[in-house]
């Protein structure tokens, strides 16, 4: 494996397609990027329709009690384990082939998977539906490295933070829409555990969404193939091991771990929110409002982080996000849930739970955007798919841990599952303190993308570098000043 921080080579891998225009010459919202956004939108929406309907059915729907208390943790494990096993191989596929071609392939595969899920719901078979969820996760694991690896090929380097902010914002809009649709579909599919509803509805929704995703993927601009000499590794973990060894030579390993650690906390939060059907005594449709609020908030936080970052990557936003998450998780556990006496849906939207979830999601967006942009910027051009595939696997490993942890501790919290937010707050505090301590003195938390692009080795390739955080920055270094976060954007952002 080549060194991850060598300068980009001027030798372009051979391709059977004409060379596309350089990303630096393209506007942010070019055809290829728009096609990717829409394909990702429908993919995220489909994932959530299937996962959320299945989760509601396991908690208090048609399959209530079949997986025990905290059964949604088991659902999550079915969702995450394929990512862990396949992301490394998927990264190799993305590096060897055109990422646009990989995207079209996986979107084609999504259609029969949606049909299988529809069959499981129609037959009211939990095993078939779990199998479909696992298959959809396998399909998504191949989309992840291609999707995130494609962004630097579609947009200019200076637009990376904005591009990530846009795609994360719209992904969370898709999550919101998918979650709300899933809530309504859950009540229509199984109005109560002993009443049969519209058995065909979940399958019809999944299949329609999959078709729209395929159509969108076709509009992505043609991209060059990668390294045709790359030999696929038979061992699914060999790519992870080799990539992690390369990352361990630098601080990029800690960046990846900090990014992945977020998904441990996100996983726990996503398990708790559907349980507000019992805490607040609301139906699935109303509970989907809370999940929609979370999606809106994360999307808004991602968008604002992208605007603040402008043409740069500002890792200090991650510290702000981590601090906000610690506080909001604690308040979600400590403050008794309350709703006003209003109409259904409105009362949930105006509850104190909704407000705190909104703030937690907003800070989550601040946490993830700089780390995601750093992973993309600092991964080597010819191995970006493998690096991002490994990062995906790590994030889903953390989500798997979240599923196991939640299933283990859930019975101890009885009728007050919201108190598990205390656990999430403590874990975020410990994790943030650890990563700050490990990254002290590297300059990474104060650096910006312009400085990293000029010399990425400076902050990352010297694990034992002395603490120079108090040294004045030379005038010609692109280091964000301490007052940068007091402004929404630099004048150069346009």
Strand content: under 5%
Helix content: 55-70%
Structural class: mainly alpha
Largest sheet: none
* Tally of separate helices: 17
Can you offer a commentary on this structure?
The chain is an all-alpha fold and 494 residues long. The chain is 66% helix and 0% strand. The chain is built from 17 helices and no strands. It has helices spanning 31-60, 71-96, 99-122, 126-154, 160-189, 201-218, 238-248, 252-272, 276-279, 284-309, 316-334, 346-349, 352-378, 384-409, 420-438, 449-454, 457-460. Helix 1 runs parallel beside helix 5 (160-189), helix 2 (71-96) packs antiparallel against helix 14 (384-409) and helix 11 (316-334) packs antiparallel against helix 13. The longest helix is centred in the N-terminal third of the chain and has 30 residues, at 31-60. It is globular, with a radius of gyration of 22 Å. The two termini are 40 Å apart. Mean pLDDT is 79; it is low at 1-18, 448-459 and 462-494.
Q: How would you briefly describe this protein structure?
A:
The protein is mostly helical and 494 residues long. It has 17 helices and no strands.
List the SSEs and their pairings.
Blueprint: H1 31-60, H2 71-96, H3 99-122, H4 126-154, H5 160-189, H6 201-218, H7 238-248, H8 252-272, H9 276-279, H10 284-309, H11 316-334, H12 346-349, H13 352-378, H14 384-409, H15 420-438, H16 449-454, H17 457-460
Helix pairs in contact: 1-2, 1-4, 1-5, 1-6, 2-4, 2-14, 3-4, 3-6, 4-14, 5-10, 5-13, 7-14, 8-13, 8-14, 8-15, 10-13, 11-13, 11-15
């Amino acid at each position: 494996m080549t060194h991850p921080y060598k300068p980009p080579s001027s030798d372009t891998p051979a391709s059977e397609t004409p060379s596309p225009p350089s990303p630096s010459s393209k506007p942010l919202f070019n055809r290829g990027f728009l096609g990717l956004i829409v394909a990702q939108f429908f993919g995220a929406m489909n994932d959530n329709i299937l996962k959320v309907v299945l989760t509601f059915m396991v908690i208090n729907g048609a399959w209530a009690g079949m997986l025990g208390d905290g059964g949604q943790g088991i659902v999550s494990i079915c969702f995450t384990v394929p990512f862990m096993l396949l992301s490394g191989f998927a990264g190799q596929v993305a590096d060897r082939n055109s990422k646009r071609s990989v995207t079209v392939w996986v979107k084609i595969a999504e259609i029969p998977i949606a049909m299988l899920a529809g069959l499981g719901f129609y037959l009211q078979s939990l095993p078939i539906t779990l199998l479909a969820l696992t298959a959809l996760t396998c399909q998504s694991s191949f989309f992840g490295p291609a999707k995130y690896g494609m962004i630097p090929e579609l947009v200019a380097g200076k637009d990376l933070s904005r591009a990530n902010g846009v795609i994360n914002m719209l992904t969370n809009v898709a999550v919101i829409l998918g979650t709300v649709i899933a809530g309504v579909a859950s009540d229509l599919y199984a109005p109560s555990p002993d009443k049969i509803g519209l058995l065909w509805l979940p399958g019809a929704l999944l299949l329609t969404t999959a078709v729209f995703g395929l159509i969108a993927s076709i509009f992505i601009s043609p991209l060059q193939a990668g390294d045709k000499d790359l030999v696929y590794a038979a061992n699914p973990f060999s790519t992870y091991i080799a990539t992690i060894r390369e990352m361990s030579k630098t601080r990029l390993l800690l960046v990846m771990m900090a990014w992945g650690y977020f998904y441990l906390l996100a996983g726990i939060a996503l398990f708790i929110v559907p349980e507000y059907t019992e805490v607040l005594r609301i139906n699935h449709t109303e509970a989907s409002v809370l999940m929609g609020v979370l999606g809106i908030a994360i999307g808004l936080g991602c968008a604002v982080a992208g605007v603040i970052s402008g043409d740069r990557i500002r890792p200090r936003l991650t510290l702000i996000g981590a601090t906000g998450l610690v506080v909001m998780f604690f308040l979600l556990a400590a403050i008794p849930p309350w709703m006003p006496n209003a109409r259904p849906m409105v009362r949930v939207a105006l509850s104190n739970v909704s407000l705190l979830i909104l703030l937690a999601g907003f800070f989550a967006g601040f946490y993830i955007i700089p780390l995601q942009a750093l992973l993309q910027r600092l991964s080597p051009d010819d191995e970006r798919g493998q690096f991002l595939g490994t990062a995906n696997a790590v994030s889903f490993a953390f989500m798997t841990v979240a599923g196991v942890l939640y299933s283990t501790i859930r019975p101890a919290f009885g009728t007050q599952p919201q108190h598990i937010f205390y656990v999430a707050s403590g874990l975020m505090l410990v994790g943030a303190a650890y990563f700050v301590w490990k990254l002290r003195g590297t300059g990474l938390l104060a650096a910006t993308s312009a400085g990293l692009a000029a010399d990425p080795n400076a902050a990352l390739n010297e694990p034992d570098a002395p603490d120079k955080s108090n040294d004045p920055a030379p005038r010609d270094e692109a280091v964000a000043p301490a007052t940068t976060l007091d402004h929404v954007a630099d004048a150069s952002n346009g």
